[in-house]
Design goal:
The strands form two sheets. The chain has a four-stranded mixed β-sheet. The chain has a three-stranded antiparallel β-sheet with strand order 1-2-3, with no helix packed on it. It is 25% helix and 31% strand. With 153 residues, the chain is an alpha+beta fold. It is built from four helices and seven strands, in the order βββαββαααββ. Strand 6 and strand 7 form a beta hairpin.
């Protein structure tokens, strides 16, 4: 594997289970991550929530880019990513699946690229394509105005 696209982030332990995450982009603010009680104080999202956010964000950005190809209207996509926590044979918590629902605005539903993009956008999502090798990721795209399901995968 080459170093193409390689990046690094830094995590600094603050206290308890709280960490400050620094990204390699100067404009990106630091993020505080923490565990929920009883371990931590829930001062920020934990790793499971960040994973769900990464999957949801990647899918949203991929679909938005394919459908709009220009500056999209604010609020064009509203996404919910839900993790199912399960216990493995050893009794340890694991992420059993991530369910993602992308609600798209009428502007995007009416895009001439909608049919093509619904078939393509998941394949261009770096995070989801990688995560789904080990965790099932279920994706549904819905017309936010009518509730019509446009795609399920």
């Amino acid at each position: 594997m080459t170093d193409e696209g390689r990046f690094s982030i830094e995590l600094e332990h603050l206290q308890g289970y709280e960490f400050k995450v620094r990204f390699d982009w100067d404009a990106a603010p630091d993020v505080i991550m923490d565990e929920p009680p009883p371990l931590g104080n829930q001062q920020g999202p934990n790793a499971s929530r960040m994973l769900a956010a990464a999957v949801g964000n990647c899918l949203s950005a991929s679909l938005l880019y394919c459908l709009s190809k220009a500056e999209p209207m604010p609020g064009s996509v509203r996404t919910t990513a839900s993790c199912q926590l399960v216990r493995n044979a050893g009794g340890r918590l694991r992420i059993g699946a991530i369910d993602v629902v992308l609600g798209v605005s009428a502007e995007l539903v009416d895009s001439p690229r909608t049919t093509r993009c619904l078939d393509l956008f998941e394949d261009f999502c770096v995070v989801t394509a990688s995560v789904s090798k080990g965790i099932p990721v279920n994706v549904q795209v819905v017309d936010e105005k009518t509730g019509t399901v446009l795609k399920t995968s």
